[in-house]
Amino acid sequence: MHLKQKHPHLQVVLSIGGGSSAAVFPSVAANTLYRDNFARSARGLVDASGLDGIDIVWEYPCDPQQGHHFLALIAAVRLHMPESHYLLTAALPAGRAVLQYIDLRRTADYLDFINLMAYDFSGSWTHRSGHHAQLYALSKDESSGASAVQYLVSQGFPSQKILLGIPLYGRSFLHAAGPGQKFKGVGGDNGTFDYNQLPRRGTKEVLDKKHIAAQCVGADGGFVTYDNPDTVKMKASFCKSKSLGGLFYWSGPLDAKDSSRSLIATGFRALHSS
């Protein structure tokens, strides 16, 4: 609210859902009455707060039926929040394991943007270390930002409605020196370090130009994989070459305060450069 009051020209949406949303969204989306109540409540909250729309974060529709219900949910929301007056976006993962269940061509009829979560490709749950936000995969079996964009477009989702996600945190793999290695545990806060804490003290930041990822090795984090200003510039260039809608970041408070290290500032400059 304070941000909107200070910058009235800024479009601000309310994000609904998140990591625990899988326990709630399936039952809401499966019922016509619940969908309508959700849509009415969302509009009422947006109007009362003076905001511009909502962002639906259902993590994640996990089968064809839930994919169908996801489409029905956003259709209900759009009915109550028409495109001429409200923004409607949704956050979706980059993996085909989820995207395959959603009719992406029809989804585009209702959404202004997809926030493509092109991160968390590797972490404490994987058998080996890996870049967690790579633009290009190390192997054909891995997910990546570029492969997700290609899949979305191939399924009829307009490129200009895709926002490529940038994580403002890194993922740690202890006792590993790079991607594709066995590791023993993770450092930081449940395996993550805020971007403004990277690179770790006493380590050297290294750029993987082939896969578009940054990393540092050593100290208390082991192998830590993340985005830095160089990778964000490359991802912004990719966005422009593929006619994407732009970039989004998760989440803002974790960014560096120094403009030269800020990923948000770097992305803005890169997207608006000639």
TrEMBL record:
Entry EC number(s): 3.2.1.14
Gene Ontology biological process terms from the UniProt entry: carbohydrate metabolic process; chitin catabolic process
InterPro entries from the UniProt entry: Chitinase_II/V-like_cat, Chitinase_insertion_sf, GH, Glyco_hydro18_cat, Glycosyl_Hydrlase_18
Gene Ontology MF, one: chitin binding
Pfam family, one: Glyco_hydro_18
Record domain GH18: where: 1-274
Enzyme class name: hydrolase
GO cellular component, as recorded: extracellular region
Matching PROSITE patterns: GH18_2
Family listed: Belongs to the glycosyl hydrolase 18 family. Chitinase class V subfamily.
Protein's recorded name: chitinase
Organism: Colletotrichum chrysophilum
Lineage: Eukaryota, Fungi, Dikarya, Ascomycota, Pezizomycotina
